[in-house]
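Loading example: each entry is read as two labelled lines plus one structure line.
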Amino acid sequence: MSIAPPRPGESGAGSVELIVGTIINVLVASSMFILVALGLAFIFNMMGILNLAHGAIYMIGGYVTYALAVGLGLNSWMALLASTVIFALFGAFLEKYCFRPFVGNFDAAVMVCVGVTIVLQNIVNNMVGNKVMSIPRFAGGIFKVGLMSVSYERIVTFAIGGLLAGIMIWFVRVTKLGQQMQAIAQNREAAFLQGISVNRVQSLACAVGCGLAAVAGSLMGAYTNLNPFMGDDMLANVLMLVIMAGAGSIGGVVLVGLVLGAMNAVLPVLLSGDYAQAIYVAIVVIILLFRPQGFFGHEA
Amino acid sequence: MTMDDRVSQGRMRIRTRGKSAAAMTALLLIVCLLPLFIDNPYWMHIIILTLIYIIVAVSFRAIAISGQLPLAHAAFMGVGAYVAGTASTLLEWPPWLTILLGAVSAAVLGGLTAYPFARLRALYYALASLFLGMAINYAIIAPRQWTGGRPGLSGISALFPDSRILFYFLCLALTLFSLIALYRFEHSRIGTTMKAIAQSHLVAGSVGINELFYRILAVVVGCFFSGLAGAIYAHYNTVLSYTSFNLMATLWIVLYVLVGGITSFAGPIIGTALLIIVPEAFRELRDLVPYISAGILLLVVYLMPQGLVSLPRLVKSWFRDRA
């Protein structure tokens, strides 16, 4: 993800605007990363499976919203809601048939996830091809403060992202269901022995995770264009996020998400595109060499 | 003779008589005589690609038997390819030199990066090498003036541009060389030591095995052959794109190995051949081709989790259960 140019109507020239623009880009990037990463983290924490198909779910969530909004003429918000529900159900399906049989079996999980990714990417690619598409805006208009102006679209994107992230943290820490999820993540067998219905909670976690990815995909599909392979980039970033945050920590995902979003938005300003990306990933690798369990993980 | 005696004598265990020897000879004959039967240049192209990726897949497994999952493998293939490519376009070196240079560069880079990574255990090694692969991929396209950046590198000198058949035989020779080398490597004392480390690094260490040395050696050897394959690919294709060596490419290599079966030497060979050739056989179905690959994947995962090499065993035990 690179810095998005100012939207029509927004100002963008001076250095104050550059700084504020960068901060807003950071917030948007971080919130999207965090949304998708939360889903991946749920699945990874509870089942030990790295859902390599998560990027594809993010992508197809955006496309389904587009299809509902443009094809069926629904309001963008309704389309978003419908798409989220659809992919929450899909998440439950995935959990039952693709993840549950392979808990603890890394090789098989990789095969299944890549298989699902191929299927999803090619369904979209065959139906869409090279057409450039973007979801109709969720919030039109420009927000003006003094000499600065920012599109409502950006504000809405990061506001929803932040809100959902906050709700997830509250959910995991405060509600009983969330604490059950934490228990399963810490020790599956003990949680089972305590009477927690592991399969049901797992299913719910997967559903929530996929729903969040669909929301992020829809928001990004309105913010920039949709593209059948946008999931690959997002998956790479989100994998880094989840591993750096460490297994078992949700608050950690948010914190690391902010840091990585900041690096992702700021580095391209200082260095040219590809060098920035190389250094960004190299920094992640070096950090992992010194602290492979991540910053907030609870296992070594 | 005890097991220890056999291991310490480092005997190579290729059978020189019996059923499997006859089968292998037949296979070798078929493969050498193939160009006489296949007129279609497109199929020759597919087979050449299969040979190149067989080298990559088998070298992936060579590292994997030491207990390390090198999820940066496609990136090292890319290193070999781009080093050979830039040496060819910028320095105008002859192909045999650039291929050698490509393979050695990949091996050296692999060794240098393996050193800090060798302290990591299984899953963490896999993840760290996954990100290393991404970093290498970006580092390759960053210096745009040398490597062509995102648009890619073109104009690499082609080996035997007029005769695909000659190239096929060169490729076949290099593939056979790689396979024999990797087979001997795995079944030598060094290979057995690496398997011991994979089984239990604590016990291996307690009998005096230098884990660090063997893990780095495994990576260096694996990356050498991966870089070799990449360099061959560069001179075959004459055009390079960074998307051929990204995360998805590594995942495909992992799939080739897993579908064939990671426990046997023939596994990656079978898996690569299947996953490259079968979808191409259905080329007329165009849009449905990726679903065929996905179908093979899902079939193997749900029915034969140990890979296709386990098929004879599964069939035998199924018949036995019915008796």
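Residues 6-12 of chain B have pLDDT under 50 and may be disordered.
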